[in-house]
Amino acid sequence: MGALEAAAIFAAGIAAGTINTVVGSGTLITFPVLLGFGYTPVTANVSNTVGLVPGSASGALGYRRELDGQRRRLASLAGASLTGGIIGAVLLLRLPASAFEAIVPAFIAIALVLIVAQPRMSAVLETRRPRSHDRAGPLATLAVFGAGIYGGYFGAAQGIMVLAVLTLSLDDDLQRLNAVKVVLTGLVNFVSGLVFIFAAHVAWAPAALIAGGSLLGGMLGAHAGRRLPAPALRAAVVVVGIAAIVHLLA
Fold first, then answer.
1. pLDDT tens string for the chain (250 positions)?
2. d(Cα 157, Cα 240) in Å, to the nearest integer?
3. What is the CA radius of gyration of the chain?
4. DSSP class of residue 157?
5. Ramachandran region of residue 203, left (φ > 0), alpha (ψ -120 to 50) or beta?
6. Could you give the CA distance from residue 232 to residue 126 in angstroms, rounded to a whole number?
7. Cβ(203)–Cβ(9) under 8 Å?
8. How many domains does the chain have?
9. How far from 122 is each of 52, 142, 170, 208, CA to CA, in Å?
């Protein structure tokens, strides 16, 4: 690996760690970079997932203030994310990628619609939404489980999906919900990464570069993202999500 390739992968890791913490879809930065340097799609996806785990950890650490008081909520959703991540990772190793990737743009589009419509839909759903700040309902848990499967398989825009589910099912501040999203998507990356380490081929050099970059990016993302007002954060979700759809369709 040359110095230019190493620098590009490390920079992509910084960008992905930052974007994953603020919004989600950092995979759409690192994954194409690895493909561009000649790694096969599965190897690139596996190595990318392993590399992004430290960024999730640093992002969650940066959001620790917003995570305060959300232990019960996280406990009720963590199992769904972990289980979904394992299933998604196994699917990646066992099934052809073409069928699943064909519907990824539709998943992202649905998540974006939910994010944009969240303020109005929240008003309509006010009488039905749980009043507790501690636990998510069964439908939200099932949706987080589904997002975990998707995240274990590919991961791009998993954060957008999870944030859409949380904003529609829980009555809380968007920044606090974004902090929960960082933890849940990090758990998916962690458990799917473990599966890949033991059952797939990991390109350790690029994975290590992405890990170092995402570690720094996660801290940067938490520093910037937690200061964004809710409308700005929602706008960032939309911009990144549209870019994800365009990239995947291309």
1. 889 999 999 999 999 999 888 877 788 889 889 988 989 888 999 999 999 999 999 999 988 999 998 888 899 899 999 999 999 999 999 988 777 777 778 877 887 787 777 677 656 655 555 555 556 778 889 999 999 999 999 887 788 888 888 888 887 888 898 899 999 999 999 999 999 999 999 999 999 999 999 999 999 888 876 676 767 767 777 787 787 778 777 7
2. 8
3. 17
4. T
5. beta
6. 23
7. no
8. 1
9. 32, 19, 9, 41
Measure the CA–CA gap between 64 and 79, rounded to whole angstroms.
20
Q: Residue 99: which of 45, 44, 154, 170 has the closest Cα? A: 154
Alpha carbon distances (Å) from 202 to 48, 50, 189, 218, 238: 9, 8, 14, 22, 32
CB atoms within 10 A of CB 200: 19
Structure tokens at 14: 């910084």
Torsion sign, CA atoms 182, 33, 244, 234: positive
Give the integer Cα–Cα distance in Å for 47 and 63. 26
Q: What is the dihedral of CA 207, 54, 230, 27, to 10 degrees?
A: 10
The SS3 call for residue 221 is: helix
**Which run of H or E residues covers position 43?**
helix 41-62
Range of the domain at 130: 3-249
Sign of CA dihedral 97, 83, 116, 221: negative
- The residue among 5, 64, 9 whose CA lies nearest residue 211 is 9
Q: How many residues does the chain have?
A: 250
